[in-house]
Model the fold of this input.
Amino acid sequence: MISKKVILTGSFGVGKTSLFNQFIYSKFSDRYLTTIGVKVNKKTLEIGGKELSMLLWDIAGEVAQDKVPTSYFLGASGVIYVCDLTRPSTYKNLDKDIEYLKGIINGGIIKIVANKSDLVSAEDIERIKSEIPLPIDTITSAKTGDNVNDLFHALGAELID
Done:
């Protein structure tokens, strides 16, 4: 079995924990509870006939070094950077955050995810995508489950290769 550490990061309230819970437990809650520190769980996937144990770290909001210990990112093979389609403030510094992350995880895979697609129209999504400074890998809704499993399976496939 292959084991890989994956970090979920991004601003407060973007839906990191909701994505985490939707993927691991197939559950969603409308209650907002701030993650304090880090929440860790594991899920095993079968991808291309191989077993992947994905160790998922859901860390408290913000990427900045003064808010999140750099040590949380050590040993990570992948990062899921989550922004909120309804809050431009969550993606305005995305390019700087991604550069910072690239320096920490040294060659790991970074997926940029725009969450909360259930709260905006398809037309708004296209407009918002043009405002985000880097290309989005996946658009998800943790609430409805749209593209959540696809996101983690796609990342898993890249981690195995």
